[in-house]
Design goal:
The complex is a heterodimer of chains A (258) and B (84). Chain A contains twelve helices and nine strands. In chain A, 48% of the residues are buried. Chain A has 258 residues and is an alpha/beta fold. Chain B is globular. Chain B is of the alpha+beta class and 84 residues long. Chain B has a four-stranded antiparallel beta sheet with strand order 1-2-3-4. In chain B, 18% of the residues lie in helices and 18% in strands. Chain B is built from three helices and four strands. Classes of the chains: A alpha/beta (258), B alpha+beta (84). Chains A and B meet through α6, β3 and α7 of A and α1, α2, β4 and α3 of B.
Chain lengths: 258, 84
């Protein structure tokens, strides 16, 4: 990962560890039960959760597998994940500080690799996917979720500019088909690709989670008032109660190493 | 709490095991635990990267390992007393 983006990730998330531990999108979220149901974890599995953040996905899988390694670039997020694991009495969760694009593990080490709501921070996504494939055992499963955008290039760029203005460590959100292609190209056969899961967010809470300045909040609201038509169904902006509600699209993809 | 042995067994030097910098052989980047299990040292002959275990969390970042490449094992600090 580039040093510049890496330090942005560390400073953005180091300062936000607590709010990610309690964020309803991250702690609950419609994608978690879908991910669990589609992955079908087995009791003897060893799992790796890449970009674990406050560890929500690692903790979801921990009761269903033998061991989970939760990895993240940011020390504060891992401390939060370890704290939440201890509080839930989950003794089979271990933490490692690691870069998703240079994983510190032997080939074919894991039955399951999960990566949830983290991939859009990775500056070299193909390298990260190559690493997922490398550390998976033959027949191992990738359980993936992330936000997705529309396929039209200009609208996708507008979408990403909006997210980046809120969070400088945001790199790129892709259309669902691009993600599927990336996995297939790395030898990960897509076995499940969900319908779009819409999640509605309240603007202030969303912006404050990343400490957005008042000036940038004004710019973000302005962007939302001037959306390209292709993004209307995605963001579905709704002005009510003196604030803005808007949606993001998330998908769950499960792929298997051939 | 000691790190479980089977999870240590799969840990590798990220520089020597991944991407374009991967070393030849079928199991590159093996690590050795040193200094009362507070540091990992890459066993590849031309690497020398060393990774600290801070507050029970192995810091397996290439730039962290590179920082200590030229520091002899005997001169490594105690990870608990290191500041980022």
């Amino acid at each position: 990962m580039s040093d510049e983006l890496k330090s942005k990730v560390q400073s953005q998330f180091g300062a936000s560890a607590d709010s990610y531990a309690t964020s309803s999108v991250h702690a609950k979220g419609d994608s978690l039960p879908v991910l669990l149901a589609q992955v079908k974890p087995q009791p003897h599995w060893r799992a790796l959760d890449v970009g674990t953040g406050a560890g929500h996905t690692a903790l979801l899988f921990a009761p269903h597998v033998a061991q989970v390694i939760a990895s993240d670039l940011t020390e504060q997020m891992l401390a939060k994940a370890a704290e939440l694991a201890a509080r839930q009495g989950l003794a089979n969760v271990q933490t490692r500080r690691a870069d998703s694009e240079a994983l510190p593990f032997d080939d074919a080490s894991f039955d399951l690799v999960t990566c949830r709501l983290a991939f859009h921070h990775f500056p070299n996504p193909r390298q990260a996917v190559a690493e997922f494939a490398r550390v998976l055992k033959p027949g191992g499963v990738l359980g993936f979720t992330d936000n997705v955008t529309v396929p039209q290039k200009k609208a996708a760029a507008y979408y990403n500019a909006y997210e980046k203005l809120r969070d400088p460590s945001h790199h790129w959100v892709y259309p669902q088909a691009r993600l599927e292609d990336m996995f297939a190209a790395a030898g990960l056969r897509v076995e499940f690709s969900s319908k779009i899961l819409m999640k509605e967010l309240e603007f202030q809470e969303w912006a404050n989670r990343q400490h957005v300045s008042e000036a940038n909040k004004i710019k973000l609201l302005e962007m939302m008032r001037n959306l390209p038509p292709e993004l209307e169904p995605l963001f579905a902006p709704r002005w009510a109660d003196g604030t803005l509600y808007f949606s993001l699209w998330e998908v769950v993809i499960v792929a298997r190493k051939g | 709490m000691p790190l479980p042995a089977d999870l240590l067994e799969i840990l590798r030097c990220p520089y020597c095991v991944s991407g374009d910098t991967r070393k030849p052989g079928d199991d590159p980047g093996r690590l050795q635990l040193v200094l009362q299990e507070t540091w990992f040292v890459c066993q590849e002959p031309d690497c020398g990267r060393k990774y600290p275990i801070r507050e029970n969390i192995p810091v397996m970042l290439i730039e962290e390992g590179t920082k200590w490449m030229n520091t002899p094992v005997a001169n490594l600090p105690q990870p608990g007393k290191m500041v980022d």
